[in-house]
Design a protein that fits this description.
Number of helices of chain A: 9
Low-confidence stretches of chain B: none
Number of domains of chain B: 1
CATH architecture of the domain at 4-53 and 142-243 in chain A: 2-Layer Sandwich
Low-confidence stretches of chain A: none
Order of helices and strands of chain B: EEEHEEEEEHHEH
Helix content of chain B: 10-25%
Oligomer: heterodimer
Structural class of chain A: alpha+beta
Order of helices and strands of chain A: EHEEHEEHEEEHEEHHEEEHEHHEEEEEE
C-alpha cells in the first residue's frame, strides 16, 4: 500500500515530528516528548491532526432507516445536532469498526470510521444500501480533522470564533456538533465543530476541507501556545485513550471479537424494531451470556509493581493462562502501569488478583473498574 | 538527527562506552536509541558484582511504548551502577551521554565496537 499523507504533513515535519504508519497513513507519533504531550492534554491542551480518520456522508430520504439497518445502534433516535457512538458488525456479530455518526439533518448523517477501516466501511455501507434510497459519499480524502483536547480547549477555540457565536460553542454538549464560523490566519469559514474526543478530557473536533487545515492548525497553535497548548502525536493519543478506558480498533475490537465481550453491549440496540446486520447472532451471543457468564471479557488491570504489560502478553491466574493483554503501558497521569485485557469471565470481577507474564516473569496486577482515569468536572 | 559524541565507542545495539583505559568504562545508551524508544520510564540494570558478557543481555529499558533489552557491549565485572537513573529514568532521555549513564564495567574483553564516525554513518546520527 502506498502511504498517505495528511494536508498537515509539512506542519508536522517543520515541528520536528517523528512519524509512524497508522492505518496506511504517515502520522505524527510525537513532536518532542510523548509524556509532555500527554500531560499537556490533561493540564492545558493538545492539538491533534486526525485527518487520517474517515468521513462518509449518508444522505437521502432513507438515511435514518438505512443506518438503523447497517449499524448496531438506533441511529434514527439521534436528534439532529447530536452524535452517537456505534458499531458496524458482520452477520456473525464480529466488529468491522467502531464509529461516530453525527446527525446533521433529518436526512443527513456524517459517519466517521477509523482510518484503516474507512475504505472497508465505505464499501460495506454501499453494499448494505442496496434497498434504501440513500447516497453514500466517502469524502475522507478531501476532509481534514483537527482536534483540540484538554481543559483549556474551549477557551482557546473561542479566540477564533466571533463573539456573537460564542454561545454556540459554550452551550455545545458532549457528543453534539454545530456549524461555527472560525476565523484566524486568513481563514474565515463555517466549519463543523463537534464536542467529542478520545482523550478523556473536554475538547473539540473540527472537520474541514483539506485546503483550510494548514491555516486552522497554525491559527490554533498561535492562539493556544500562551495557554499551554502544544501539538500532540499518536503516542500520547494512545496513552490518553487508554487511561480513559476507551477501546482501540485492532487492539480491543476486531472481527473475531464481539460487542458483549468488549463491554459494548449497551451500544447494541437489540430492542430496535427493524432488522440490522448482525442482529440474530448478537441476540444469540447475548442470550448465551457472552462477556458476562461465558467466554472472555474486557477488563482493566492496575499494576501493583512498576512493570507494564504489553499487547499480546498473557494474563495468568496461579500460573495458568486466563487471558491476554490488548493494550498496556505505564500510565503517565496515574504513575503506575495500566492495561486492558480480555480475561475469562470468572476472573473478571474488580479486585481479582492476576499476573501478567512479563517475558517469563509474573508481574502482579489487579482487576479494576473502567475507566482508569476520570477527569474532575 | 540524533546526536553522536566523538571520542566514545559504540556498539551495534546502541550502547556507548567511555573510558580512558585506566579503569572501569562507563556505559550508556545513545541518543539514537533514546529517540527511537521515546520517554523512558523504567530501567533494569545489572547489579554491582555481576559479570556481564559482551553481546548478551544484562537488563531492560522500558519506555512508554516498548521494552528493549540492554546488551553488554563489553565483558567484565560491574563495578558501579547509576542509581539516579533507576529513580529518575527520564535522565536517560534528557542527558543520554552524561547524567543518564547506566553502569560501569571493569573490562576483561571488548565486544565488536565502532568509532563515533562509523556509528553515526550506520545509524544516521549527527556527530
Amino acid at each position: 500500500m502506498t502511504e498517505k499523507y495528511t494536508a498537515l504533513y509539512d506542519q508536522h515535519k517543520l515541528a520536528g515530528a517523528s512519524f509512524t504508519n497508522f492505518g496506511g497513513w504517515q502520522m505524527p507519533l510525537k513532536y518532542s516528548s510523548e509524556l509532555a504531550e500527554h500531560h499537556a492534554v490533561r493540564k492545558a491542551a493538545g492539538l491533534f491532526d486526525l485527518s487520517h480518520m474517515g468521513e462518509i456522508w449518508v444522505t437521502g430520504p432513507d438515511s435514518a432507516a438505512f443506518l438503523d439497518y447497517a449499524l448496531a445502534g438506533k441511529l434514527s433516535a439521534v436528534a439532529v445536532g447530536k452524535a452517537k457512538y456505534s458499531l458496524i458488525c458482520q452477520e456473525d456479530g464480529g466488529i468491522i469498526d467502531d464509529l461516530i455518526s453525527y446527525r446533521r439533518g433529518e436526512e443527513k448523517y456524517l459517519v466517521v470510521p477509523n482510518a484503516g477501516n474507512a475504505p472497508v466501511v465505505a464499501s460495506e455501507l454501499l453494499e448494505r444500501a442496496a434497498n434504501f434510497d440513500v447516497t453514500i459519499d466517502d469524502v475522507s480524502a478531501q476532509t481534514s480533522l483537527i482536534a483540540v483536547q484538554g481543559p483549556k480547549a474551549e477557551e482557546i477555540l473561542l479566540t477564533l470564533v466571533p463573539a456573537e457565536q460564542h454561545s454556540l460553542v459554550t452551550d455545545l454538549k458532549y457528543y453534539a456538533a454545530v456549524e461555527v464560523e472560525i476565523q484566524g490566519n486568513g481563514l474565515a469559514e463555517e466549519l463543523l465543530l463537534a464536542r467529542t474526543g478520545y482523550t478523556g478530557e473536554d475538547g473539540f473536533e473540527i472537520y474541514m476541507p483539506n485546503e483550510d487545515a494548514p491555516a486552522l492548525w497554525e491559527a490554533l497553535l498561535e492562539t493556544g501556545t500562551g495557554q499551554g497548548l502544544i501539538p500532540a502525536g499518536l503516542a500520547s493519543r494512545d496513552s490518553l485513550r487508554l487511561e480513559a478506558g476507551m477501546p482501540l480498533y485492532g487492539n480491543e475490537l476486531s472481527r473475531e471479537g464481539n460487542p458483549y465481550a468488549a463491554g459494548l453491549g449497551p451500544v447494541v440496540s437489540l430492542a430496535k424494531e427493524s432488522d440490522f446486520i448482525g442482529k440474530t447472532a448478537l441476540a444469540e451471543l447475548k442470550a448465551a451470556g457472552a462477556g458476562s457468564t461465558t467466554g472472555r471479557k474486557l477488563v482493566g488491570l492496575n499494576g501493583l509493581g512498576r512493570r507494564a504489560g504489553r499487547s499480546h502478553y498473557s494474563v495468568l491466574k496461579d500460573g495458568n493462562v486466563v487471558g491476554e493483554v490488548t493494550s498496556g503501558q505505564p500510565s503517565p497521569t496515574l504513575g503506575y502501569p495500566i492495561a486492558l485485557a480480555y480475561v475469562d469471565v470468572e476472573h473478571a470481577e474488580p479486585g481479582t488478583a492476576l499476573d501478567i507474564d512479563l517475558r517469563g516473569k509474573p508481574e502482579p496486577f489487579e482487576v479494576v473498574a473502567l475507566p482508569f482515569y476520570k477527569r474532575s468536572k | 538527527m540524533s546526536k553522536v559524541i566523538a571520542d566514545l565507542k559504540y556498539s551495534a545495539e546502541h550502547e556507548w562506552i567511555a573510558g580512558d583505559g585506566s579503569g572501569p568504562v562507563s556505559i550508556g545508551i545513545t541518543a539514537v536509541a533514546t529517540d527511537a524508544l521515546g520517554d523512558i520510564v523504567y530501567v533494569d540494570l545489572p547489579e554491582v558484582g555481576d559479570t556481564v558478557t559482551a553481546g548478551e543481555t544484562c537488563g531492560e529499558v522500558e519506555s512508554t511504548k516498548s521494552v528493549s533489552d540492554l546488551y553488554a557491549p563489553v565483558s567484565g565485572e560491574v563495578t558501579e551502577i547509576n542509581s539516579d537513573v533507576v529513580d529518575s529514568p527520564e535522565l536517560i532521555n534528557s542527558d543520554p551521554y552524561g547524567n543518564g549513564w547506566l553502569f560501569k564495567v571493569a573490562v576483561t574483553e571488548e565486544g565488536p565496537l565502532m568509532s563515533a564516525e562509523e556509528y553515526a554513518a550506520a545509524n544516521g546520527g549527527e556527530l
